[in-house]
Amino acid sequence: MAFDEMLNAGSAPREPYKNYYEWYSAQEPGSLMVKSRDAENIFRKTGITFAVYGHEDSSEKLIPFDLIPRIIAANEWRKLAQGIEQRVMALNAFLDDIYHKQEIIKAGRLPRELIERNDAFLPEMIGMRPPGGVYTHIVGTDIVRTGEDQFYVLEDNARTPSGVSYMLENRETMMQMFPDLFQRNRVRPVEDYPALLRQSLESLAPPGCDGRPRVAVLTPGIYNSAFYEHAFLADQMGVELVEGSDLRVIDGKVCMRTTLGYKTIDVLYRRVDDDFLDPLTFRPDSALGIPGIMDVYRAGNITIANAPGTGIADDKAIYSYMPEIVEFYTGRKALLENVPTWRCSEPDSLKYVLEHLEELVVKEVHGSGGYGMLVGPTATKKERSDFAAKLAAKPNNYIAQPTLSLSTVPILVKNGIAPRHVDLRPFVLVSKNIQIIPGGLTRVALKEGSLVVNSSQGGGTKDTWVLED
Amino acid sequence: MLGRTANGLYWMFRYIERAENIARLLDAGLRMSLTHSSGEQGDWEGVLQSAGMHTAYSESYDDVTSVDAVDFMLRGKNNPSSIMHCIDSARSNGRMVRTALTRECWEATNEFWIDMKQLLARRVRQQDLPAVIGSIKQRAGLVRGAFHGTTLRNDGYNFARMGTFIERADNTARILDVKYYVLLPSLSHIGSSLDNVQWESILRSVSAYRAFGWAYDGEITPAHIADFLILNSQMPRSLAYCYEKMCSNLGYLAKQYGQTIKAHDTAAATLKSLQKGSIEEIMDQGLHEFIEEFIHHNNKLGLEISEGYRFY
Q1: B17 FRET partner, CA 20 to 30 A, in A88, A162, A383, B274?
Q2: Average pLDDT value for residue range A327-348
Q3: Testing the interface with A: which of B11, B87, B99 to mutate, by most A Cβ within 10 A?
């Protein structure tokens, strides 16, 4: 039995959910179902959509939103926040080291080929220190829970974590629909995220910038799966949403084309991958980037958030070394545990993984979004044997983890509520200090028994409450 | 503001205006085919011409029938100006410039699109057509209203308005261009009234059948109709009205930006030609030539705006 965060074994509500559960039990049966449809209409009307690649005719989809909040007690959050802060500090120190002295390699704690043969490692970044020494301005740390006190970090999203718009819209929708709930429960606010993000980005403007730094959000355009979020964040921050075609390098600065001519940009929050950022440095066929922006960056005339080359830190092969990395840079044991991970590049591990496929989750090292992974216990025999062949052919490309019994939180179903597996992505802003937004994106697998929470694979979301002390 | 954002706002409102204009033309066409004995099919050929879709239509169909014409105008796949395509483009532009729109305005646009995707998913049955046309006009009105009631009066507002008026002027001019012969003195017998069907069709396609009656005390002459559509600055779809508005939008931009561009001169010259002349002079010098020249200058103005304000 998975750990349920709302109801304990005796079907009594756990402490943080007591107040909510009392309210829930007093609701008319069916009335929440009606609210649920209202919520869907709000989302559809607002156009809060994402695109699923490969589905041509249904190019914009809603992420299903479940009305039952996921509630985290103040003391639980404190523990998580400390662990996350430590981890994010370590990630930045790691990136700085990797692109400078590489002490962790010299100390023999990390194999050199893991870095140098990694596509996410950008030689262009060697010796380059971003303004303020910050590499990962925005981090999303994916966390899963398996018991009362057992949390694991599943993944560090250090490139361009997405989903924060859902965190904000989910809260907005809940407050609109259930104002009474927010009177009964003291829920910590998340809505200052855009203002904090802007402040945080401005504080890391290049040293040569005079006056208030000009920030812009760079999007690949309206066909990108996360376009809604890009527009939402630009709008909420009150900054321009730009595309590559709006930008040009003029006199050593990155400038945007306005109706009055070109204007300098100081901080670029880019939602475009490294590969596409600068056709002169990376992929020459990229139409999404800005030719020459890397030269401007290296000359210290623009801040790019997150810094190019941070992907090396959220690579799944690096992930397996995170306990060592945290310890190496912070001098303390990691407060948050890693999920035990087999690196298929190591022959013993590969052998073990191949022999235990039916118990394991196997992931591509560079994959994301739940694509290209095998969930052993629910896969068919044929899927497993097909996957085994891929794995044996290219073991470096994979890692494997035990199938964790993820905690559940109930969702609304036809006849009441039913438990479904969840994970959690809190959002972290890094500038001179580290700010962790109290809450995050809770993703929930809507299918009974399913462990896959990715929105591209039929997952939904919940509002996430962190309670005040 | 970004040049691309100005471009997106401008085109978003051009497309909303176009969708609404096509709906008006459809409405007029439908009305004519129901009330006049101009054959069962009505004057769909003329409607397609007024909508500027005749060439595209004849690439897809051999004959003009009311069923095909209506479907082509509503949702024709190879018709870049079909109502569905206009709404689609308006929304895409709106999404692109989402940060420059208020939530109300974006939601009105998005709901317009959601609604039409459903209504126009398949051929519209004839008995549903009036309701569908009504819905399009209503939804377009809602977008305009939300925009008007909630938008900051800044440069973005003025780009959006210019999109509306340049499109509207084009539309009115096009109707005149197709129907000008109806208004030529040589073709209407001196002293007799105009061909009822034709002038009614013109006025209905700009939704001004009743307004005309009020403005000219029911006196229907070719000169009055031409005056109404070209020079009457009370008539919100006349060329003069559109240019008065556009000049004031351009004037606002000149003030905010502290500079003028070529478009300012072009628009002012066109407005002047609409204000100084009388309709008799225009008709004496050739109505057709006048309109053709107007359309040419209107297009030129569009280009000058997009260049001068760095749309691309």
Answers
A1: B274
A2: 94
A3: B99
